[in-house]
Fold these 3 entries.
Entry 1:
Amino acid sequence: PLAVGGDGQVWVIEGKPAKEPYLSFYTGGTKIISRTSKGEPGPEITDFENPCAVAVDLKGRLLIGGLNKHCQVWIYDVSGKPMKVDTIGIEGGIFSGTPGEYGPKKFHWVRGLGMDQTGNVYIASVFGTWYNVTIEAYDPAGKRLWDVHGLGNWLDTACTDPDDENTVYTKENVFKMDWTKPAGEEHTLAGFTVDRFKYPDRPRVTDLHGPSHRLVNGVRRIGGKRFLFCGAQGTGNFEIYKFGKRLGCLALQLRCWPYNMAAYRWEAVARGRRMFHLDGQQRRRYGRPL
């Protein structure tokens, strides 16, 4: 990713070393370097963690977005030594306020930035671990003009909440539905169920290819509690996630089983407690409640 200022200064995100070239920008670069219009080395910006996107606004300032806990766009005055002077977005982004609840200026992983001649800013934010891009437009005063959701996903499935047919879940997102609207216009992004910063070791975060092949199998309620079930495109891992009121839209992993689990013995364990397993006749046996 790069951006060119009105003075001809070129700003470039320097990638990370990676075994596979396409992964060098998967979670962002290391820093932002610059070159003058004559190709000479210019200032660098090193205080923005995992930069993924850059743009120059009408004032000649540099906008930077990426993947970090701030979940914001940082704005730098680059007329001299680069200095952070402003931000776009709420600190903590999608995890601020009610965690996982989507709203204006609640960004996640900013992968793209753009400007137009009137000063409007366009922000592409990934509400997923790889795909599911949302593009938002903001005017110079910071008011959101519009947003569009669900762009660039390889494949996905969805299911409704058994207790609320107006709420639809995918493997990473929650949508509110208005069935009175025309087809293709009835959905609105309501939430994001993955917290990659608080739970960085979960499969929906660590599996670089899995997010594109993972499918939602259903949402079920057991003992009045809500669970999300996921599996892979070609079977593979089977995963259970649990929702909690204090977590907003976030869903915590209970268990992930490999496809070759010995003797097909399925156990869901949360805090050391067994939820259920299948006996020798494939009948479900329950342990202590979660």
Note: The chain has two helices and 23 strands.
Entry 2:
Amino acid sequence: MEDPSQRLSAEEVLRHPWVQNGGPKTLLDTPLRMRRNNSARELSAFAGDAMHLNRVIHHHYSVAAMIDQVALCEVDEDHPEKYDADDEDGPIHINHIPRNNSRQFGPKLSPPGASKLAQRRLGCGKAQSLTREPLVASPSG
């Protein structure tokens, strides 16, 4: 206030109902909303990390399975008599492995760049860039 005579005195302020009663009884829900929004953000980040971890684990098991199959297919060339095509307990020659005998571990996941989410995000960016008008310098400057 510009006029000092219209300002409240310290006694008047202390007698005000807000000061006497401690303010409104209902609290603002802003802290609750902030915690809820933060929890949703953290959950989304956790889900992304979990999907990434699943891809890494799936890739690890796929590589390990291929290494196991290659190890089974290696032939000791110094002792070829050890390998009998009819012997089911011995090592398997590469020509005797069924082609569709690949092991699957966990859900079938696409590579991170080829996931549907990544494709949607790339698609959204392309669609937006196609709808924007190109920037052209005006002749007037």
Note: The CA atoms of residues 55 and 87 lie 37 Å apart.
Entry 3:
Amino acid sequence: MNSNSVDEDEENGRKEEAVEEECGGSGVMRFYILLSFVAAFCISEAMAATNCSTKGEISCYSCMGRDMENCQSGLTCCKGACFKLEDIKHNVIVKGCVNNREEDASMKVRELNVPLYWANKEKVKGESFFCTGKDFCNETSRVSLFASFFSAVLAVMIIR
């Protein structure tokens, strides 16, 4: 082995140690950023639910996605019932609100007037599960949502 390559390896090692010392707080900073994000998410959800309940309505998620975890974004205030529709044929989840009161925990097969551009304008069709019990009753379970979130965070940390 060449003495120049040994010197270069030692110098690179010292540089890496210096960078680690300078960025030693970055792990703590990442934790605070993550904590701030979770707190902001919880506060915004609570504020949205409060705004709907002052009007005598419930809060529902309204979104369209490929799976339950990635369909937690939109918000609508609802006088009727929240629903989750699963279109197995097109692999789509739709969440939203209907104005009429549906029985809590009931299910109906429905076709929505939502054309899918990737499926020759076919409409979303599937089993709709209704709920009226509480705000955001059409959400994904918290365990599933946080498991997905922390899996993504862990993957990013491993990649780095």
Note: Residues 26-53 form the longest helix (28 residues).
